[in-house]
Amino acid sequence: MDSGMHHGMMGGGQNMAMPPSHNNATMQHKMMMHMTFYWGKEALILFHGWPGSSTGMYVLALIFVFVLAMLIEWLSNSRIIKQGSSSHVSAGLVQTVLHTVRVGLAYMVMLAVMSFNVGVLLVAVAGHSIGFLVFGSRVFKPQVVGESEKPRDLPSMAC
């Protein structure tokens, strides 16, 4: 490999054959893509152009990620299907739908965290933590003496 080709492949060459308009769009897109954790409201979370540069929209995005994480914990620890109230087939279908929704929401939270914004990471962890405290721990569930814990609709998500 000659030094000119090596130089061009490493990103140092300025004479790449791209139209100027594509170059500008690529530069603007690369400026928004962080590959290390960073602080700040200038983020790109889940959707193109969202939350934008507004502080209010950034806070709304953080609240959205927090609620998604809590919803995942609620789905992981809920007992929606009553024992003996439906057939095995319909109960299995409901469990499958709940599992699909929970996994989809978990992937959305994961993609939000992949924005590498520290605020998003913190609210995702806080949402999972508070969601587990409220829906999964024994803090808000009075246990009757001699009563064993009933099985959940969905098994807990393993790390």
TrEMBL record:
InterPro entries: Cop_transporter
UniProt protein name: Copper transport protein
Transmembrane segments: 56-76
GO cellular component assignments: plasma membrane
UniProt membrane topology term: Multi-pass membrane protein
Family, per entry: Belongs to the copper transporter (Ctr) (TC 1.A.56) family. SLC31A subfamily.
Compartments, record wording: Membrane
Highest taxon, organism lineage: Eukaryota
Keyword annotations of the record: Copper, Copper transport, Ion transport, Membrane, Transmembrane, Transmembrane helix, Transport
GO molecular-function term, one example from the UniProt record: copper ion transmembrane transporter activity
